[in-house]
Amino acid sequence: MVKLIAIDMDGTLLNEKKHIDKPQKEAIHDAIEAGIKIVLCTGRPLYGILPFYEELGLHELDLEGYVILNNGCSIHKTKDWELIDWAELTPDDIDYLYKFSQDYNINFTLVDEAHYFNIGRKPTDELIMDAKFVFSDITEISLEEAKSGKYKMIKAMFLGNPEEMANFQKKYEDTIKDRYSGVLSQPYVYEILPKDNNKGTGLKKLAEKLGIKQEEVMAIGDGNNDIEMFEYANYSVAMKNASELAAKAAKYRTDSNVNDGVAKAIRKYALNKI
């Protein structure tokens, strides 16, 4: 029996126009009415999910809701958006990671609860686009201020055109993963998380806090950053448009994000209505 469903957003719940189609909303509402906890589990920061959370009407349906953000590095209670669990990068981490961006035409960015920071280089088209996707302005910050300890820097990201990022990943991924969790979450974004943090660890923490067993957890996603979430959840469902690695990691399949894949997965595997 499914008691918690973790749902990725981009490429999963959201269609190609970054909207939530009506069948997805209806299936989510039906699941909540059936007593299932719905948790958005995404790489987006808090400010990148607020309009969607309101659009889904989850405040009215679940007074004790939660979201897992920044690829598992932060968990918020939705009642007052209190940050209840998080991991963060240290000043030494920021100093170390910044140097990797110097040989490529890419941006080095940092995320806290309220800001999308950019350090040092003029924003690339990819950074400008990504900031729009998460409803944020870009805040320019010096390396020294980023390391000052004034902010909870929850994750770092390198952004550039896909060819540049592929070269970056090939050269630096092994080195980076010695000290951090890293994932190419989009062709133009390589994300850096504090070591041993990912969607799977975030989902595990929340399930245990809620007293929900691993065998009662379902996860729906499409990307490489969903793999650890799939490995944890007993019911792991990959979208039809999932990456090859994500599809291999999931036990089950559903339709695409433009053909009501989330709704179909919820009804088939959680509500047993298909």
Automatic annotation (TrEMBL):
Molecular function in Gene Ontology: magnesium ion binding; phosphatase activity
Gene Ontology CC terms: cytosol
Statement: the UniProt record of this protein carries the keyword Hydrolase: yes
UniProt cross-references to SUPFAM superfamilies, sorted A to Z: HAD-like
Keyword Mitochondrion: no
Keyword annotations from UniProtKB, A to Z: Hydrolase
Name listed for the protein in its UniProt record: Cof family hydrolase
Organism (species): Leptotrichia hofstadii
